[in-house]
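Exam revision sheet. Question 4 asks you to relate a sequence to its structure. Input first:
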Amino acid sequence: MSKNIIIALDFDSGDQALKFLDRLDPNLCRVKVGKELFTASGPQLVKEIVSRNFDVFLDLKFHDIPNTVARAVSVAADLGVWMLNVHASGGKAMLEGARESLEPFGEQRPLLIGVTVLTSLSKEDLEQIGVPTNPEEQVSKLAFLARDAGLDGVVCSAAETRLLRAQLPDGFILVTPGIRRPEDASGDQKRVVGPAEAIQNGSNYLVVGRPITRADSPNAALVEFNSAVASVS
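Answer key, structure tokens:
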């Protein structure tokens, strides 16, 4: 089975995350460790999750001067993660430095993707931080920057994936957060779609959090998401 679903482990502690993972089959999904969980439990938890045969997307969104980001990316790769990310808005030099820091890992290197525009941001939010354009235009601009810097792909809303898939190479990875079924609350995500639509729009990997982690039966919810993906892939 193609593992398109990435479950966001948005838990307060490593113990909670590991108990949740006890209920999942690593052959049916991948998992994401973000800032909250990483701050609570650190690199050791990531190593433990990797040892359980889960592919880990380390979602720390590095954004700093090029040398600092390059070192951080290299250290993250040492944890054995499957994929990690940096903010594309950090600029081409930062992105290239991050990519180059992974070259010594050879075939064991993790995928490196760029964060374009957070799915919580609207046009009004971008204007407030001095970006006088709409999210779709900014996402496209940053996606091309990431491609030119040699990254493997980007994080983007499914609202932008159809456009990006038409403009960028087939092998360029599109990772989409904010995936919800019709019955799921949108939470703090403003640009969201369902799993089938996201795949149809061109997404490769779908990040799903609360609809699975807070479900009465996480496995049943995961099966439902995988079935939706399989119906169109």
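Marking note for examiners. Residues 35-51 form the longest helix (17 residues).
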